[in-house]
Model the fold of this input.
Amino acid sequence: MRKRRSLAMNLDAVAQKAGVSTSTVSRVLNNLEIVKTSTRSRVLKAAEELNYHPNLHARSLARGKSRILGIIVSNMENPFFLDIYRTLESDAHGQGLEVVVANTDYRSEQLLASVQLMIGLRVAGLAVIVSEMEDHLIQTVADSRIPAAFYDVGTPQKNITNIRVDYRKGIKKTVGYLCALGHRRMAFVGHHSTLGPISERRKAFLESVHRCSPSAEAKIFAGPDGLDGGRQAARELLESDFRPTAILCVNDFMAVGVMRELHEEGLQIPKHISVTGFDNIKLAEFCSPPLTTNHIPRDQIGHTIFDHVLGDGREQRDTGREIVIDPELVVRDSTGIAAKN
Amino acid sequence: MRKRRSLAMNLDAVAQKAGVSTSTVSRVLNNLEIVKTSTRSRVLKAAEELNYHPNLHARSLARGKSRILGIIVSNMENPFFLDIYRTLESDAHGQGLEVVVANTDYRSEQLLASVQLMIGLRVAGLAVIVSEMEDHLIQTVADSRIPAAFYDVGTPQKNITNIRVDYRKGIKKTVGYLCALGHRRMAFVGHHSTLGPISERRKAFLESVHRCSPSAEAKIFAGPDGLDGGRQAARELLESDFRPTAILCVNDFMAVGVMRELHEEGLQIPKHISVTGFDNIKLAEFCSPPLTTNHIPRDQIGHTIFDHVLGDGREQRDTGREIVIDPELVVRDSTGIAAKN
DNA sequence: CCAATTTCTGCAAACGCTTGCACGCAGAAC
DNA sequence: GTTCTGCGTGCAAGCGTTTGCAGAAATTGG
Done:
């Protein structure tokens, strides 16, 4: 005896109990039609009685593939990512696929571990929803030959499908809207991973403000992603000598944190200062005041990713390299006419 | 040739390239010390060059167990559950375990599928964070012999470890606090799965209100869990003829929804009406007004579960059956003196 | 230089499942 | 009563690892 097995819950046990061979049991459990009805029910009964659950590892190994969709997310706490995750999950379940998620918390070591995990699991498809990823890791995924799609990965890469949001367009629109309301001093609040050296968003913001009026002022602040991060960035802003009449936030989650801090400092929104966000998460309707924001269709993103990885769009996987999604401005009560100086 | 393999990325390939046997490669990859340094580096180099990633299914199969913590959650959207999940995840990673999550969305068919998945994966341990679970499913988990812990599963069961919060105590305290502020008409807002026939919370609420004053009035409302559900319950309340001066919500997430609806109907909090929640999620500090709530230590819950499943507390797994956690009232700005009629 | 250790490596079985192939056996056709 | 179908089942190989055991190689002591 090489090893003590805790419970002998395997095909063999069921086969013996039902008086058939393992092949037959396997066929019954996989709904192959070739099995006689009487044998079939006998097997089913035996499996039931033995409380048998097929070993998914063995199954994947034998089949040479798994029925698992892998999802890597940078920040599950942010409802934006959570929504994408949930869409993916529901699509996957719709196709009878299981889902394995890994959370990276924006930590690159966790990202690496997550990628290894997914490859090790030989997932049938992989969705990567992290804001930033080193090129060599992207390459690792590509080399693994696992059908994959990325959301908004920093630099566009040769061989991969990348879904991204045109933040530039959204920022332009938002700044334009604020400009029309008379705002001439605006701040941008980002989180750390939106601030890489090549940050398109930062540039778009500065350009847009300048286009509003050459004399308009712009400044950029940042904190970690999340409610606290937003609050922290707002505090920095308040402690600086910059007094904007409007603040653009890189996402709604941070915007809520920003609004809280402003509120506690006695600033009224939008009377004293306007605030906008991105994403249009559920919370944007529920905070006070409801947030003016840029709607980004998470469900569309999720469906698109799924389609390119495991769905019907699979065939064009190798052709469609980059899919761009446009945000749409949703005006609520957190923005108004610029306060006079 | 029986089957076309996409990529021959297995131990054999590495072994051949390094000119050793698969056993040696295995030993290197598992950091067994018996390997000579020179061979070791040769193997490592080969693995690197071939872009090799061990097949986790094969590994689990051979080892007869996996290094995976399974987590089943009813509603990832609710920050309360999310926090527990994150604590578990971080504990697991701390021990080099991977994590697989399944979301049930309060749907029992999903719960069943999730349980099957976890058993099929032969997870090393299982945490079940769903508010309600049928007895036979609990039994299935118990029969699987997988170390498991449940959070607040409806009926206490013979053979399992159950961590639960003493909502009764929290509700008593909250009602007492409101009573002292002069409230005599209170509503309770729950979600559907807190309303089973044996609902301890509902009873605790009614009793507590009665204890406050025999003539005090109490009524119960409900919606689905979540922001929208809270709003929906609040709308029902507003459309009824019941005019409470305070509303206790079963969790903060719903409370935020409730507050939003009240606000839009022109009711001021806490001037016209007081609102309380449970959980003390991050958002409770960030909403307007900040929410008076009952703190429930998610991290403690998470750590406790992990400990009982896979951590050091493992030894007592079969002894400690029920662990009770007390909530603690946190007073913020959403509660005040009862409005006079 | 040989024997006795000790260190390192390879062989092969096992993990639990899937699946191509072949075979048994019933009924149909002749 | 043969031969021919073809359905239903079993055999056994293979999926990619781990690991006990035994044997090879290196080291040591005498």
